[in-house]
Amino acid sequence: MSLPSLITFPQLVRRIRQEILLGQRTIDQQRALVYWKVGKYISDFILHGKNRAGYGEKLYEHLSTDLGVGAKTLERAVRFSREFSIQTPGSELKWSHYRELLAITDKNQRTTFQRRVIQKGLSKRQLIETIFKSGHIPIKFFN
């Protein structure tokens, strides 16, 4: 995409800012989809070995070492894939939103907060403040 030859500096800044924001949003949405898929793969794999004691715990440790990803992150990804349905890469939520929503154990409350994020376009910080102010979860449970 080329720019017209007669563009002002403020127009240039505005266009660049728009592209950067669009790129960041796309990356954040893709990150959520990636973690959902990772969680699904691990979850399906664990189901095949469900009769073995401690299978999941050892699996997280081995995957963490082999992939260079924290075991807690992998466990969170599995929980994420089990708790949320993501059909398309165009999800309105970022991975950081999902991480905070996973701290809410009541599914109805979690759905309510998820809708607020979508309707009001809340940032992660705004979501945390909304949950905290509602009194549903003590702040210590947040990531």
Question: What would you say this structure looks like, in words?
Answer:
By secondary structure, the protein is mainly alpha-helical. The protein has two domains: 9-88, no CATH class; 92-143. The protein is built from six helices and no strands. Helix 1 packs across helix 3 and helix 2 (55-67) packs across helix 3 (71-83). The protein is flat. The N and C termini lie far apart (40 Å). Mean pLDDT is 85; it is low at 138-143.
Keywords for this structure?
143 residues, mainly alpha, 2 domains, 6 helices
Q: Helix coverage percent of residues? A: 55-70%
Report the C-alpha radius of gyration, rounded: 19 Å
Number of beta-strand segments:
0
Mean pLDDT across the residues is: 85
Query: How many domains in all?
Result: 2
Largest beta sheet, briefly? none
Shape field: flat
Measured by DSSP, the beta-strand proportion falls in under 5%
User: Number of helix segments?
Assistant: 6
- Note poorly predicted spans: 138-143
Distance between the termini: 40 Å
The topology string of helices and strands comes to HHHHHH
Structural class: mainly alpha
